[in-house]
What does this fold into?
Amino acid sequence: MMRQFIFIVCFFIFAAAGHAQFTSTSKKAVSRLQSAQAAYRAKKYKDAITQAQEALKADAAFVEPYLLMAAVYAETGNIERAVDMYKQGFLVNADFFPNAFFDCAMYEMRLGRYAEARDHFNQLIASAKGSEKLKQQAAMRLPWCDFAAYAIAHPVPYTLISLGDSVNSRFPDYWPSLSADKNTFIITRRLPVDSYTPYGSSNFQEDFYISSLKPDKTWTSARSAGFPLNTPDNEGAPTITADGKKLYFTGCNRNDGKGMCDIYLSVKAEAGWSKPRNIGAPVNTAHSEKQPSASADGNMLFFSSNRPGTYGGLDLWVTRKDAMGKWTEPKNLGPVINTTGDDCAPFFHPDGKTLYFSSEGHIGMGAFDLFVTRMDSSGKWEKPENLGYPINTTEHEEGIFIDCEGKRAYIAVTNQKEKDVDIFSFDLYDKIRPVAVSYMKGRVYDAVTMEPLQAMFELTDLKEVKTVFASVADTKGEFLVTIPAERDYALSVEMRGYLFFSENFTMSGKATADEPFFKDVSLHKIQPGQKIILKNIFFATDSFNLKAESKAELQKIVGLLNDNPFISAEISGHTDNAGSDEYNLRLSENRARSVVEYLVSAGIVSTRLIAKGYGELQPIAPNETPEGRAQNRRTELKIINR
It folds into this structure.
């Protein structure tokens, strides 16, 4: 954006020069200005300043030298001095270059001088000579000045904590990404190509560095991810899936690239990270695709791109995997999120609905600010909310990561004095937090041989009967599944040739990411006599009517029987010891029959099914406690032949 403002100033300076319409009639002053212009074009900024000052000595009422010096100071990063030059020029002649009010106001916003910026925007709007396009932009910026002034007067809670020397270095460290179990931290580090690279030059490259959490909750010294993940090319903006197994990132100007920047994938195996591969079409195009953020289950990928169909420069897009595991045609997130400016750096939280991103198009503090939006049950996005000051400042805020619990954020902060970038954490205030997410971590293995199984596992929202997470265990049988709070879930683990495992979780305000579940799952091969407890079959108290929450589990049984057409099964009902023996036996039989009737209605041949009620005769836990009685109230499936 800074270069855009400078271009506006210089366009009018040089355009005036081309038409000999200077605000000075002094030949000496004009000659010195032309020398200053030539020096500026050659990037000889010191000479440009000297010649501009000489022009003012020849004619103190000459406006153009002030504007040229403002451009030089802005170009070299001295924004405060640039604003001073604008103001001096306005004192000499405020009417000749009214469009300069816009540039001055934008730089004043960068300095946090919002009242002054508002005045200069209004002066442009009131000018008879100003550009109509810039007047429109100035009018759009007035609410920004009001917002920023209010935000500074009403700061949000914000205390930065450095991640320390283990993660941060003397080089720029940024783009943090953390696995769901908080054990693996991946960052981007900008390093000199060789020991002779001067600081501030472009002879740098970006590599990934990894830090691991130690038992004492401190971080190991960040180490290079090494080859093949790191290469002589740049690697940046990583996102790691919840299980820590897949890493998506941005790679630019590569030999296998489709455009300027593409999205790449590396998979973690026993030997380390795989050679990154370009994920290809339809995600990557001849344009730029970058800054990916994967959903917890890896089935959605958010990213920024300037591909056709954007509302401005960079927009936020999302692609989803189809039933074959292929990425589908990306969709623009729409005008609620995307603006005529750049919208970028998405982070999609594991709660499956909260999205954080950076934007220069939504009302903010003046540059890129961080925003949060949430997706409702129909898939529509809420109006983005600015995270507030001092999370957002007059500087450029981009790239935020929120942990599963939804309380701790990680960002890169620039130390303007030392010109360094380090990673810090801070606690999110309640209003901008996502839904807390816990996780289950464990291992799947054969119940007899103990061999690991690459089983499929799926988390289903019981109320909506909607899959919220699905993946496959790795070669060690290990898995990690995130579990958003505030809902009730069914977890199923299944593999062809085995009976599936089921579990349920009541997460309504009960667990957080600091209270994860650890579960080793043993699967039994399908054979006569083998049985499983159907933990996600639900009935109302003293009723044999199936509750809607049972549908996900019932469909699993249908799938099991369809995949194994030569087996038959007994569906059995069991109760606790409350009530008479006769009542419990009748209730258990009716419940078993309800399950069988559902399976038959779903296409399973009735001769393959037997409904049996056992009442309280086969307890699996003592009936003396509420927990024991709850375990005894159950439905089971048993293989009776194969």
User: Anything to note?
Assistant: The domain at 161-432 is CATH 2.120.10.30 (Neuraminidase).
